[in-house]
Amino acid sequence: MARPAGGPGAMAQARGLLTKEPPPQAVPVSDLPTKVCEVALKTGPDSSSGLATAVFRTTKYLPPEWHQRNSSLYHKALAGCERAERGRAEGKELAEHAAAAAQRAQQDSTAALGQRLQDVHFWKAELQKEIEDLDAETGLLAAQKRRLERALDATEVPYAIATDNLQCRERRQPPDLVSDEVERELLKEVELIRNIQELLKRTLIQAGNQMRLNCDQKEVCEMDRSDKVETYNIDVNCGRYSNQSTNVQFHPGSVKFEESASTPETWAKFSHDNIYRAEREKLASINLRALIDNILHDVSEDLRMQCAAVNKAFTKRCEELYDTKHKLEHHLEKILKEVGDQEANIAALKQAIKDKEAPLKVAQTRLYDRSFRPNVELCRDEAQFRLISEAEELTESTVSLKKKLLESEQCLRNLEDTRMNLEKEIAVKTNSIFIDRQKCMAHRTRHPVVLKLAGYQ
């Protein structure tokens, strides 16, 4: 059997005919052309022509069916074209919209990267400034630390001078071995230097700790800045990517948020806290430098004033020693003169006593001889009385002269003792003057200057 023309619908109709399905309802006769109607009316079941064409009629569409089929195909084609045209328009619009959205999204991403680059650059510049400030501040603090070390070394000289002065003055001889104003000032100077050395050592430790804190905070800022430099370079490369770049590729796994990722607030707070801590350490370092400067200034002034007080006490003490020595020498001169006079006086007394011996012998001899006068001639005459009186006077004079001689000799011994004491005192004063003037004060000329004590030299 020949295949019916007309597509899938015609084939279905043909299959219906072959399965003896009832034929489709006939079109009213009035709607058909006139000739055709006439032919149909003349053709009936009993006619011979109907029997002869029955097989051919069952295998063909009717003209109305053919026209209807063609009309439906036209309508389907028109509907398909319309749908295809709408689809093409929608696809074009969707493609244009997607392209515009992709371009806008890429522009927004590029702008966001640019803004992010500005933020990263801002914090990177702030961190760089803090790093430079901390480095400069650490250098200034290191210079102050070197001043402290030089000042501490400089205090060894006045300490050695003061202790040497005290040791030298221990060699003074009594009674000059006294706790005078010089010794009190020297002890104050030694105690002051010890306190200053302890203060400088504590300040050195504090400066070293602050320098370590500065370096630690500088390292934190450098690590933060290094991360931002790396991030800046990455974002710069990301900003340079375009649709024409040849080094782009698919990374499906990158479209996600890392669990350890920070937020913009925590990111900014991290750098802000680092800068805040750096500023805090820098301020502490500045305050410490000012404190060190004040300490060194006060230390140098205190040592200078104490040195001046010791020198003044030495000068006053030396003047007292010189004055005492001069007075002792003046009195020694008087004693020596008096010793000479007293020796002459003793010699004169001895001579006077010796001179009384002859008159006394004469008087006693006269009295002795007159005691041999005979009988009544042994008279208590005026001559006898005068001789007795003369002998008594000479005896009393001799006794008085001898007593005076003893007194003079004792006085001479006292004068000699005084002379020896004066000479000893003069020797002691000479030794004290030598120790204070030649040893101590000459040694104190090596006392360091104020600039050296302040750590500048």
Distinctive features:
457 residues; mainly alpha; Substrate Binding Domain Of Dnak, Chain:A, Domain 2; 9 helices; 81% helix; disordered N terminus
What does this molecule look like?
The protein has 457 residues and is mostly helical. Among the domains are: 120-239 and 265-318, Substrate Binding Domain Of Dnak, Chain:A, Domain 2 (Up-down Bundle); 335-370 and 379-453. It has helices at residues 8-18, 34-42, 48-58, 63-154, 156-169, 181-240, 264-370, 382-444, 450-453. α4 packs parallel to α7. The longest helix has 107 residues, at 264-370. The two termini are 128 Å apart.
How many helices? The count is 9
Low-confidence sequence ranges: 1-49
Strand content bin: under 5%
Question: Do you know the CATH architecture of the domain at 120-239 and 265-318?
Answer: Up-down Bundle
User: Which series of helices and strands comes N to C?
Assistant: HHHHHHHHH
Shape by Cα distribution: rod-shaped
The assigned structural class equals mainly alpha
Rg over CA atoms: 71 Å
Name the helicity range.
over 70%
Provide the CATH topology of the domain at 120-239 and 265-318: Substrate Binding Domain Of Dnak, Chain:A, Domain 2
Number of strands: 0
* Span between termini: 128 Å
Mean pLDDT across the residues is 85
Largest sheet at a glance? none
Write down the CATH class of the domain at 120-239 and 265-318.
Answer: Mainly Alpha
